[in-house]
Specification:
about 80 residues; two-stranded antiparallel sheet; extended
Length: about 80
């Protein structure tokens, strides 16, 4: 079980992140609703201030679609 005080800290951190990066969650929601289907490729790139790039990707499968659906159901955001 999550400690209620830690949960409160996570909520505050998430709110701060949302305020500083307001386009992230709408983007993720749009992708989850319209682009997650078997065969889709999710790619993430991180570029450090020094210019080093880290890139990874996954090809979405049926299990991934079900996992995302379950996460959306659990969060109450259908």
């Amino acid at each position: 079980m999550i400690n209620p005080m830690n949960f409160r800290k996570y909520q505050e951190r998430l709110q701060l992140f949302t305020q500083e990066h307001p386009r992230v969650f709408p983007f993720l929601q749009d992708v989850a609703e319209h682009a997650i289907e078997p065969g889709s490729v999710i790619e993430m790139t991180v570029t450090t201030p020094a210019g080093r790039r880290y890139v990874s990707n996954i090809r979405v499968n049926e299990d991934d679609v079900e996992t995302i659906r379950m996460a959306k159901d659990a969060s109450g955001k259908n």
